[in-house]
Amino acid sequence: MKSRQSASGRTRLGEVGEDVLLASLLRELPASRKFIGDDCAVVDFRGAKNLLVLKTDCVVEGIHFRASTDPALVGWKAMMRPLSDFAAISAVPQFALITLIVPSARSTLWVKKLYRGLRRAASRFDVTIVGGETSATRGPAVISVSVSGFVEKNRWISRAGGKTGDDLFVTGRLGGSLRGKHLRFVPRIDESRWLTRNVRVRAMMDLSDGLGADLPRLAKASRVGFQIGRSKLPLAAGAEIDNAISDGEDYELLFAISPPDRDRLKKAWRKKFPKLPLTRIGKFVSQSAIRDPQLKRGYVHFQQP
Amino acid sequence: MKSRQSASGRTRLGEVGEDVLLASLLRELPASRKFIGDDCAVVDFRGAKNLLVLKTDCVVEGIHFRASTDPALVGWKAMMRPLSDFAAISAVPQFALITLIVPSARSTLWVKKLYRGLRRAASRFDVTIVGGETSATRGPAVISVSVSGFVEKNRWISRAGGKTGDDLFVTGRLGGSLRGKHLRFVPRIDESRWLTRNVRVRAMMDLSDGLGADLPRLAKASRVGFQIGRSKLPLAAGAEIDNAISDGEDYELLFAISPPDRDRLKKAWRKKFPKLPLTRIGKFVSQSAIRDPQLKRGYVHFQQP
Predict the structure, then answer these.
(1) Cross-chain residue pair A14–B144, CB shorter than 8 Å
(2) B244-259 burial, b for 16+ CB within 10 Å, e for fewer?
């Protein structure tokens, strides 16, 4: 990892990776560092009692979807990805701006279907599409969606509040998203808002890169280690444990609560969301506990499945 | 024009054009129509006394810049384009989110220079870059910048408030932007904020597609016609009248004021912005006046230079 970070100017992006690149760019942004690193930007808006929440995301043809993918599903995914980041911090999305970058040879029907998917996804969460920008391109289609909304100061959940001993929960089932879920998922906004109204959530994020990549980020932000029961992971139909850890694009919630809240949460959840599993997959442990050989093995195994 | 609008599903985008496509997509968005059509989206933010202003824009390699363009200038332009839309409505930009879509083979040095340009442009107007997203692509680089900020309810200027008889002014000099200005321009935010503090501006926009395309939009939004003195247009060094009308990417302000304010404006402007020309280029006239043969000829000539 060290050598990848000391990227000289001649390094190609493909050799570096997104996390390292972003980290390197953001290091040069001292004034704004405090807003970044979590799923959304959360800022004060002049004279407002709630916090302003901002998030942008994009899907690129050939990377996030295929030329043959139903454009309505592409639109759905393009809108739902940033909305999942709102779920991650228990924020309410309100307004979306859309940038469509589409080759001139593409049919208007394709664009209309794409837009229908964007609109359907937005209206699922009462998000209003307030603006659009289009551009031609000589390359693949790109759809960038930028969402703004709010979160109450006392309900904003970051990744950083986890404590040693906290229980770790995930919603839904993990793995195998590429078989279809990644194009049809519903961000856990309702669940996330319910959680912060009913339980003291200490740290939370959405699972976009897979538990194996995302859980270490949550633990790092909270300055704790973690211990996971691999056999406890809730698996999507047809998925193996390694799929649940590595596939990514689950768009489920991963969150930490204090153990005394555990039973009350489980009971209330079953009543409120009877169709959506909520699974305790493990707990936060002190960072020094990682030196314990068994945990360390577990951690390493987890990291490199 | 009619046939282009009745685009069937098999029409290719290249045959339609951005205005027509956007209009067609937005027609399907009844709930949000009221926010769109002007330069930015302007919305109420829960419990805030100011309006929330949102704008996204993008630059695409091969369309808005060349592969050989200095990436620092590409970054400057990518940030300044949406900021010019803030100038258009007299809003104050505050936060920017950046989406970088870059081929993996691109050097990290290129990306760093690009980011330096983005940062330099943002800091010129105290805009904080609060988040970023990167993606790989198999096509040309795309930089999408999404900006949020505010405008006071009593200072928001739309395109729609112009009246018959209003004087029309432009800032700066028009034409020939592709010789360099399009990569180095400074949006007229300071000027626009000064204007709404000191004059009753009735309608305003920024000139991005050229006076010949943009002035008719301003007039249409205000439901008036216009009369322009071609010989009065302030020309950039080396530019002809047709350049001032058609080149585009001027990023100057075009605005309408009531004639009694004219002399006071000119005098105060010269004192405040001694280096930046302010030129009265013509006036709004009643729409019916367009039936006047002379004006009509002027209008047609103006539209199809």
Answers:
(1) no
(2) bbbbbbbbbbbbbbbe
CA–CA separation, A29 and A232 (whole Å): 41
If 0-12 CB within 10 Å is exposed, 13-18 middle and 19+ buried, where does residue B25 land? Answer: buried
Q: Cβ contacts (< 8 Å) between B46 and chain A: which residues?
A: 48-50, 150
Q: Which amino acid is at A208?
A: S
Chain B: give the shortest CA distance to residue A145, in Å: 9
User: What end-to-end distance do the CA atoms of chain B give, in Å?
Assistant: 17
User: Do A131 and B106 lie within an 8 Å CB cutoff?
Assistant: no
The DSSP result for A235-265, as a single string, is BPTT--HHHHHHS-----EEEEE-GGGHHHH
CA A56/CA A158 separation, integer angstroms: 18
From A53's Cα to the closest Cα of chain B, the distance in A is 10
Chain B residues touching A108 at Cβ < 8 A: 7-13, 16, 21, 24
Q: How confident is the model at residue B46 (pLDDT cuts 50, 70, 90)?
A: confident
Of residues B9, B46, B108, nearest to A109 (C-beta):
B9
**ipTM score of the complex?**
0.85
Of A75, A157, A133, the C-alpha closest to B99 is A133
Out of B111, B133, B140, whose CB is closest to A13? B111
Whole-model pTM: value is: 0.87
Which residues of chain A neighbour B62 with C-beta distances below 8 Å?
137-139
Counting beta carbons within 10 angstroms of the beta carbon of residue A205, is it exposed (0 to 12), middle (13 to 18) or buried (19 or more)? buried
Residue B138's H or E segment, with its range, is: none
Q: Do B41 and B55 contact (CB within 8 A), yes or no? A: yes
- Of residues A142 and A105, more confidence is placed in A142
- Residues B6, B11, B216, B52: what is their CA dihedral angle, to the nearest 10 degrees? 100
Q: Which pLDDT belongs to residue B168?
A: 97
